[in-house]
Amino acid sequence: MHLIEFFLHLLILMNLSKYVLNLFLFCIHMKKLILFFTLILYFSCSSDDLKDEEVICSDSELGVNCPDTDYIKNSASPYVLPWEIGKTFKVGQGNCTDGSHSFGQVQYAYDIDMPIGTNIVAMRSGVVVKVIESFRDLEIGTVGAINEANVIYIKHEDGTEAQYIHLTYNGALKNEGDNVNQGEIIALSGNTGKSTGPHLHFHVIEALNECEDTDPRENYTWYSCNSIPLTFKNTSEHCYGLLEKDVRSGGYTAQSY
Ligand SMILES: [Zn+2]
Q1: What's the gap in Å between 203 CA and the centre of ligand 1?
Q2: Which residues surround ligand 1, an ion (CB under 5 A)?
Q3: pTM of the prediction?
Q4: How many Å lie between the centroid of ligand 1 and the Cα of residue 210?
Q5: So what's the architecture of 66-253 in CATH?
Q6: Per residue in 88-133, pLDDT tens?
Q7: How far, in Å, is the centroid of ligand 1 from the Cα of 255?
Q8: Structural domain boundaries of the chain?
Q9: Would you give the distance in Å from CA 234 to the centre of its chain?
């Protein structure tokens, strides 16, 4: 009788262990299955979705000026904001507007509201290739001529050229031929030329020989060179460039880099 009972127990135990083993094997299979589907999901999504992921950021949820433009991720940008670390300024006019930043040389320009005499720093290292600083600042409420703006232009090593415009009288702090480092103070902002109030207009034009300024009129510039979309490595994320003050009222702070 005991022997039969023993075998019965053994039989039950064997079935139970078989059940545990099956459960174990089932779990391993499920794990493999999950891994398999995860991999399939990863490879099917990664190529197309990555591009979208790159341009979605908290800032672009506020508004987008140039939806079809590819901006370099700001952490990878070679540029810094053209004002000193710790300062915050707002964008009066951004890129791709239907105002004066609509196409060509000024499509990717920025107007930054700032008082006359604000220190302007080089967005990128380069050589000063043009300086004009003889024009007087305008009275508030008047608009000057386009060819009466004080400017400083800096050519970068890749041939692109940054143009900082509307500087104050005697507002260029560097001379033509000077080498400047990124972040170095190069000029003082102002309100000269075709300007409706104190601000810095700046843009970077592409490195193409055929778009050299060949305008025969003194201090005029042909709008034949195209500007390039800019992002800045030392401020908060801005996947579609800097946004105007009506959507980003806090402006942009230059951070250390
Ligand atoms: Zn402008």
Answers
A1: 8
A2: 109, 111, 201
A3: 0.76
A4: 23
A5: Distorted Sandwich (2.70)
A6: 999 999 999 998 898 888 999 999 999 999 999 999 999 999 999 9
A7: 24
A8: 2-58, 66-253
A9: 9
